[in-house]
Amino acid sequence: MLPAVRLRLVETLRRGGATLAAVAAAGVLLAGVAGDDPPGARYALATDLAAALAYLFAVFLGAFPLAADRERRRSLLAASSPTSPWAWAAGNAAGAAVAVALIATALFAAAALGPALRGGVETRMAGGLEGSGVVWLRRGEPRSIRLLPGVERMRIRFHVAYPGELRGTADAFRVAADGVPTTTIVGRTTELSASGERLRVENLEESMILGIDLGEARWLGERRSFLANALLAGAGPALGAAALAAFATACSAALTGPVAALLATLVLLLGGLKGFLETTIEEGARRPAVHAHDEAGDRAHGAPGPRASRGSAAARRGMKLLLRAVPDFAAIDPTARASTGEWIGGRGAGTGALLLGASLLLAAALGGVGLRTRRSA
User: Fold this and answer.
1) pTM reported for the whole predicted model
2) What is the CATH number of the domain that holds 162?
3) How many separate domains does the chain show?
4) What are phi and psi of 211, to 5 degrees?
């Protein structure tokens, strides 16, 4: 297994992997340093670029492990190796995972270093409130929010409603936190200073009813290092890219390089959109399956609605099963929260490590079968 790991790393260097990674890291660093945008926006842009490049490296280093003129020699090497097919496949995938993990770590480190050179983002311990639902605020009816010890600020996105027949198009409104008024914009997260055991929030608008979504509200506590937070935030997506590289390597052991790259790209796209697709499926399940005809009309036309309903339900179940088999790459990437100044503390790294372990086991199984078929042929 170890010879296969070393071979993959050596071949990555021979193909210019280190040079390409250095150029990519320089581009990510420049994206985080240049520009007049706020540090959080520059960090978000740099991490998006780092993630895109890391997964690009994962697909191509996994699916195309060696140069095209060495393809035939790779097949002969794997077929004539005294190592068992499963050990060789596991080592091959582990080598690709290590190479991509190192490249992805360098990219996310560059994304963290760029904004840090210009001060970084003010980072604090953060968390959500207890409870759920929306607490509505009318003028003259203040509400208090219970705070944990050490909380210094609250981030709240207010919902806006209009009582009775009133309708408005105002873009801004006023609220007060512990008697201190502030003006905020509709749809924007508002940061309020907090102290003590409770925060007293008051609506200062007569024509609006403001709602506080307890599930979306976030508290901010003591300060932490932005650079350390950004480095920790990159661990999850780096491990996710390594897992994708191991999966692409497993596919390349039994399929051609382009097909393996296409399959890995499909998994990446589904994994990146998994949360959105699941939400879409759930919303579709709540809609009525048949709109055009009532039950009597369906019987008269010989096309009853229940069949269409059962077909739609079967399609939704099939999509759910497919999505369950796909990893959620967005869930292991906490850089979006890190860009807003929330302390991550290694969130996403544990799930990313489990995903990498599962990918290596899958690579050993599928890749071993593919290599064994080559040897027997």
Assistant:
1) 0.80
2) 2.60.120
3) 2
4) -120, 135
Q: Which two tokens stand for residue 253?
A: 């052991």
Structure tokens at 157: 């996105």
pLDDT tens readout for residues 276-321: 887 777 776 665 544 444 444 555 555 554 444 566 777 777 777 8
Q: What b/e readout covers 286-320, taking b as 16+ CB neighbours within 10 angstroms?
A: eeeebeeeeeeebeeeeeebeeeeeeeeeeeeebe
Where the chain has pLDDT below 50, the residues are: 67-76, 289-296, 305-308, 375-377
CB burial readout 260-269, b (16+ within 10 A) else e: bbbbbbebbe
3-state secondary structure of 198: strand
What digits encode the pLDDT tens for the residues 39-96?
A: 999 999 999 999 999 999 999 888 876 544 344 444 445 555 555 667 777 788 888 8
Q: How far apart are CA 193 and CA 177, in angstroms?
A: 7
Q: Which domain holds residue 179?
A: 130-216
Sheet of 158-161: strand order equals 134-137, 209-213, 158-161
CA quadruple 92, 95, 101, 107: dihedral sign: negative
Give the whole-angstrom CA distance, residue 342 versus residue 339. Answer: 7
DSSP 333: -
User: 371 and 241 in one domain?
Assistant: yes
